[in-house]
Specification:
- The protein folds into two domains: 54 residues, no CATH class; 150 residues, no CATH class.
- The chain has ten helices and no strands.
- 52% of the residues lie in helices and 0% in strands.
- α6 crosses α7 and α7 crosses α10.
- The protein is an all-alpha fold.
- The longest helix is centred in the last third of the chain and has 25 residues.
């Protein structure tokens, strides 16, 4: 007879020292030189619920797999939300040689996803145009990319359905990313007005056909 646990809220299950997966204990599989969110001295007192709550940002974004967007854009959104999109800071962290400054404005000394999509002058103009066209602010502030996306989604949910907001939001990010790459590799930059209008146009088509 096999015995299993029901985690429920996870308050009574230790993250590090209980074998709550079919593999082994986390304390045995995590390398000693890996930076851990919690020290081993605290490990006996840490439940699964605390670990899940600490990672709520990532759990919250599972909705991206349900959005009516093309598979390529879905993967792009996943990489963006998990800090794996190949902006210059990520490339440098992976030991790749590249320029550091923003490919679009050439003013920010280190291109990050937060800067490229939300702080760069070109991107900010796109968001302002969209907010003006829609009649409400599509973009909110936040300390991280994940926080910006989360705050923006909550702020817009009274205006449009979350699925519709998500499709439009990632359409905008997708065209900002494409513009960045076109400028980097082809020396061609798209006008912010074009990106704003194209984002709305494409998001409508995605919702209809994806």
């Amino acid at each position: 007879m096999s015995v299993s646990w029901v985690i429920a809220d996870g308050a009574s299950i230790s993250y590090w020292f209980d074998s709550w997966t079919y593999l082994t204990k986390a304390s045995q599989t995590t390398p000693d030189n890996t930076t851990r969110k919690y020290s081993l001295q605290m490990a006996n007192h840490i439940g699964i619920s605390q670990v899940i709550l600490a990672g709520t940002v990532k759990w919250e974004f599972r909705f991206i797999w349900k959005l009516k967007i093309p598979p390529t854009v879905r993967v792009f959104g996943y990489l963006l939300l998990h800090g794996r999109l190949l902006t210059h800071d990520v490339m440098i962290n992976r030991g790749l040689s590249c320029d550091t400054q923003c490919e679009v404005c050439h003013q920010c000394p280190l291109e990050t996803a937060k800067h490229l999509f939300f702080q760069c002058g070109h991107a900010r103009q796109v968001w302002r145009l969209l907010s003006s066209m829609l009649g409400f602010n599509l973009l909110q502030t936040g300390d991280t990319v994940q926080a910006i996306v989360s705050n923006s989604g909550r702020a817009c949910q009274r205006r449009i359905p979350r699925s519709q907001w998500g499709t439009l939001f990632f359409a905008v990010c997708w065209f900002i990313w494409r513009n960045r790459n076109r400028k980097k590799f082809d020396g061609i930059e798209s006008d912010p007005h074009w990106i704003a209008h194209q984002s709305i146009k494409e998001s409508k088509l995605w919702r209809k056909f994806c």
